[in-house]
Amino acid sequence: MRLTVLGKSPAWQDAGGACSGYLIEAGGTTLLLDFGNGVFAKLRERVPYDAVDAVVISHMHADHFFDLVSFSHALLLGPRSARPRLVVPPGGSEVLRAAGALWNDPELVESAFEVEECGPAAAAEVGAVSLRFTEVPHFIYAQAVDASGDGARLTFGADCGPNEGLVEFARDTDLLMVEATQAEHDSGSQRGHMTAREAGASRLVLTHFSDELDEEHVRAEGEAGFGASVELASEGATYELGA
């Protein structure tokens, strides 16, 4: 399994960057995990958009799904013919219709993709990739996503505050990718994000942090909490998992 970071920015894009978007390739299957602002252009630098088998969205905040509008226009109006699957969390279809209504076309995304909703009780197979989901704490409903294929396993924590459920969900995974959006812990506010110090797994990649944060501080916080070295996601970074 190969994981490529297309975008790792939080809700505001890094300079020249993109919001949440990760390309997974395994056993001939091409899958996108999240598809936020700026990700479509980054995807086109890597693979033809009609080669994508499915897009999986962790939650319906704009920085995790909004470039589906650009992708939809390409599929419906461009020269390449395809209708990929689109897996969204419960209630995601309604949000997609609301987004399409901004272009006076509530069915825009549903016309371009085969849309299905999957929650924690469901699993999905996309070619050679098996998917599982679990709810994680965030400001809206959000799901961590576990993807297995080619004898490897990746767990993506989505956007979430500290929680033990993610630790159990990710147990024995080859790579856990979690966010580190907040610079410091604010005990007086609702927690929908984590700091770098609060993540834990056997191999850890921190993502969804701004280029306006000090990377060495993010790394130091992550390593202090993790007790070992951590990796920081960067656009274009590739991770080879499994044999």
Provide an overview of this structure:
This protein has helices spanning 39-44, 62-65, 68-77, 92-101, 108-112, 164-169, 215-226; strands spanning 2-7, 21-26, 29-35, 54-56, 85-88, 114-117, 123-126, 129-136, 142-149, 152-156, 175-179, 204-207, 231-232, 238-240. With 243 residues, the protein is α/β, with parallel strands linked by helices. The chain is built from 7 helices and 14 strands. The protein has a 7-stranded mixed β-sheet with strand order 6-5-4-3-2-1-14. Strands 7-8-9-10-11-12-13 form a 7-stranded mixed β-sheet. The radius of gyration is 17 Å and the shape is globular. A hairpin with a 2-residue loop joins strand 7 and strand 8 (129-136). The protein has a single domain (2-240), classed as Ribonuclease Z/Hydroxyacylglutathione hydrolase-like (Metallo-beta-lactamase, Chain A, 4-Layer Sandwich).
Characteristics:
alpha/beta; 243 residues; Metallo-beta-lactamase, Chain A; single chain; 7 helices; 7-stranded mixed beta sheet; 22% helix
Output the helix-strand order: EEEHEHHEHHEEEEEHEEHEE
Q: State the end-to-end distance.
A: 8 Å
CATH architecture: 4-Layer Sandwich
Strand count, sense and barrel status of the largest sheet are: 7 strands, mixed
CATH class: Alpha Beta
Task: Give the strand tally.
Answer: 14
Low-confidence stretches: 185-200
Mean pLDDT: 89
The count of helical stretches stands at: 7
Structural class: alpha/beta
Report the radius of gyration as a whole number of Å: 17 Å
CATH topology call: Metallo-beta-lactamase, Chain A
Number of domains: 1
The largest sheet has its strands arranged as 6-5-4-3-2-1-14
Helix content: 10-25%
Shape label: globular
